[in-house]
């Protein structure tokens, strides 16, 4: 249930099930062979190591079948959702079947499968009649709020456009200005920069060079290039900040709206306190120009 605070204007999501989430369980529910520890799959892409090819997409029906086959990427409804029913949908995207494999070490083939899964779920959730915005994000490490170490992302469909997203849509020229900042890294399709008003030390924003708005606007080649650039950025961020924790937030436009696509890499070494929570002002000990210099060297 979503409730808007009349005083601050903030939206609060009430979900009693969130308190029941497992924290670092001894038995990882995201590993192959343990599919029955999670809700049934809504989407899978098969393993390719032995086949030499990507194979066909396997869709599982609403009758509640659980996967027992090998897979490379698996998607299922979050057992502890923030949004469900008419209020939206909340899914988990397990990015690899290998428990200890880190995102920054994924092969190009795995990146292609992962991006295909992102595109499919983004499009599927966007088709919901009551859905007005779809958010894709990833938490890694304790300080990010991740409760399971196995690499995964989450995708949430909202029945409204969040205020933070509406603000970005109203200030799209700021993203055009970001694109002119010095690059931490870049490729043909995307550019990574340190925003002038970074909320966190070593924050990096990866922007599409073309004015594309949504995940379905990108080719597989472009999607792999984006994920590969994010891999490099995360390696640099981990080296520069000295801890591994981070959050990725994918910013795509709501249906029918325009917004330059971008991904924020938010390192999570700092903990928000009274100033951030009470005044809404982020305190950052690292100037963007210093972060840029250190990230380039990392």
SSE layout:
Layout: E1 2-4, E2 11-13, E3 43-46, E4 71-77, E5 89-94, H1 108-126, E6 133-140, E7 152-158, H2 163-169, H3 172-178, E8 185-186, E9 190-193, E10 204-208, H4 220-241, E11 246-251, E12 262-267, H5 274-279, H6 288-297
Antiparallel strand pairs: 1-2, 3-4, 4-5, 5-7, 6-7, 6-11, 8-9, 9-10, 10-12, 11-12
Helix pairs in contact: 1-4, 4-6
CATH architecture: 2-Layer Sandwich
Tell me the number of helical segments per DSSP (H or I, 4 or more residues long). Answer: 6
Specify the structural class: alpha+beta
Q: What is the CATH third-level topology name?
A: HIT family, subunit A
Overall geometry comes to globular
Q: Helix fraction?
A: 10-25%
Task: Give the CATH H-level superfamily.
Answer: HIT-like
Strand content: 15-25%
Provide the domain count.
Answer: 1
Extract low-pLDDT stretches.
48-68
CA radius of gyration:
19 Å
Can you tag this structure with a few keywords?
298 residues, alpha+beta, HIT family, subunit A, 10-stranded antiparallel sheet, two-stranded antiparallel sheet, 12 strands, globular
Account of the 3D structure:
The chain is an alpha+beta fold. The chain has one domain: 2-Layer Sandwich (HIT family, subunit A). Helix content is 24%, strand content 20%. It contains 6 helices and 12 strands. A 10-stranded antiparallel sheet has the order 3-4-5-7-6-11-12-10-9-8, with helices on one face. A two-stranded antiparallel sheet has the order 1-2. Strand 1 and strand 2 (11-13) form a beta hairpin. Helix 1 (108-126) packs across helix 4. The longest helix has 22 residues, at 220-241. The radius of gyration is 19 Å and the shape is globular.
């Amino acid at each position: 249930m979503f409730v808007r605070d009349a005083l601050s204007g903030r939206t609060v999501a009430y979900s009693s099930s969130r308190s029941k989430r497992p924290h670092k369980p001894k038995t990882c529910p995201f590993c192959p062979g343990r599919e029955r520890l999670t809700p049934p799959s809504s989407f899978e892409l098969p393993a390719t190591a032995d086949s030499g090819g990507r194979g066909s997409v396997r869709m599982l029906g609403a009758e509640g079948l659980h996967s027992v086959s090998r897979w490379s990427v698996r998607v299922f409804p979050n057992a502890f959702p923030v949004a469900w029913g008419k209020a939206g949908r909340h899914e988990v995207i397990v990015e690899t079947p290998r428990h200890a494999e880190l995102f920054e070490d994924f092969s190009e083939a795995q990146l292609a499968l992962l991006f295909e899964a992102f595109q499919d779920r983004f499009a599927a959730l966007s088709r919901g009649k009551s859905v007005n915005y779809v958010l894709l994000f990833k938490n890694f490490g304790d300080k990010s709020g991740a409760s399971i170490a196995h690499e995964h992302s989450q995708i949430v469909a909202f029945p409204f456009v969040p205020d933070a997203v509406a603000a970005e849509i109203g200030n799209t020229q700021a993203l055009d200005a970001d694109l002119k900042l010095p690059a931490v890294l870049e490729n043909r399709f995307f550019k990574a920069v340190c925003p002038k008003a970074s909320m966190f030390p070593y924050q990096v924003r990866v922007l599409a060079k073309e004015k594309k708005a949504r995940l379905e606007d990108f080719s597989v080649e472009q999607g792999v290039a984006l994920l590969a650039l994010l891999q490099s950025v995360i390696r640099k961020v981990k080296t520069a900040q000295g801890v591994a924790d981070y959050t990725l937030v994918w910013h795509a436009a709501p249906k029918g709206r325009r917004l330059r696509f971008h991904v924020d890499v938010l390192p999570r070494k700092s903990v928000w306190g009274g100033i951030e929570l009470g005044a809404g002002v982020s305190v950052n000990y690292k100037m963007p120009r210093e972060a840029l210099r250190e990230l380039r060297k990392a």
